[in-house]
Amino acid sequence: MPSRGETAGERDVRWMRVALEAARRAGEAGDVPVGAALVEGERLLAIGENRRERDQDPTAHAEIVALRAGAALRGRWHLEGTTLYVTLEPCAMCAGALVLARVDALVFAAADPRAGAVRTLWRIADDPRLNHRLEIRGDVLAEEAAELLRRFFRARR
Amino acid sequence: MPSRGETAGERDVRWMRVALEAARRAGEAGDVPVGAALVEGERLLAIGENRRERDQDPTAHAEIVALRAGAALRGRWHLEGTTLYVTLEPCAMCAGALVLARVDALVFAAADPRAGAVRTLWRIADDPRLNHRLEIRGDVLAEEAAELLRRFFRARR
User: Fold this and answer.
1) Which in A18, A56, B58, B127 has the greatest CB count within 10 A?
2) Residue B3 has pLDDT above 70, yes or no
3) CB-CB under 8 Å, A100 with B91
4) What is the pLDDT of residues B56-89, one digit of tens each?
5) DSSP label at residue A59
């Protein structure tokens, strides 16, 4: 449900900026800068920053962190009615988790040529063989998200 | 490293029985009976039961539970040198997580015709395009694992 006078595309950009802020915080803390925002209608249900290094948890990608937080807040594992915004195309783990959690829609910023699993290497999140499929939109603020990643890896070299 | 006089196949069966025990406990607690055992050499590093319903966590598959517990015990997200035993072929989320965690090998019992992502629908865990690949063996105590699932779903009908 967009705000007055706001197009669906403008709404996507507005929520992606929230995910980008989470990505920036991850980068400042030493994790690869990827961030996610889980949105229900006009409500921000949960935020996820990539926390793999901080938590030494191989599953702590931004998407998983946001899904687990959203389910904990709802008190149930079904996340119907939500949209996940994430700054990088999800990997196989995260794409699979989005399907399992029955998230309605996925909006991502930059494609991931190495591990992207919703468009690039596989199309896991809208495969007709699975019992749930997400609506998917990509390329929302992709350049800002990609630049954040490039800057992070340049600084580490 | 197999025990004296034990073949590699016998070793797989021995550890799969540990995973099957975890699957049984999951079923008794009302969760779909899937269990996992994360093994390092001859040491059981972590156990995972499917806890989705108990925890209302969409990501709490047996494999993810075991990987997170193993990483927490090691104090690092890399799980090189480990083998994951699981009673059902991993889904996309779990297959992706096994790759991310750099687990050496995966041994599963029953194939999953609906969502299996290491052999059935996709081959995510040994794809040459990814930066890590697992050694995979299937069909270890498959009938016992499948019967456990059938009995669970029959009782629920």
Assistant:
1) B58
2) no
3) yes
4) 999 999 999 999 999 999 999 999 999 999 999 9
5) T
For an interface test with A, the pick among B93, B126, B133 (most A C-beta atoms closer than 10 Å) comes out as B93
In this complex, do A57 and B71 lie within 8 Å of one another by their Cβ atoms? yes
Cα(B69)–Cα(B79) distance, rounded to whole angstroms? 11
8 Å CB contact between A33 and A24: yes
Tokens describing residue B123: 């081959």
Look at residue A36 and give its three-state secondary structure. strand
Q: Give the ipTM of the model, two decimals please.
A: 0.96
CB atoms within 10 A of CB A139: 15
CB contact under 8 A, B58 and A129: no
Summarize pLDDT for A64-83 with one digit per residue, the tens: 999 999 999 999 999 999 99
Find out whether B35 and B48 touch, Cβ atoms under 8 Å: yes
Report pTM: 0.96
DSSP B51-95: -HHHHT-TT--HHHHHHHHHHHHHTSS--TTEEEEEEE---HHHH
Cβ–Cβ contact B149 with A under 8 A:
no
Tell me whether residue B28 is one of the annotated catalytic residues: no
Rounded CA separation A14/A12 (Å):
5
Q: What residue of A is the nearest CA neighbor of B102? A: A58
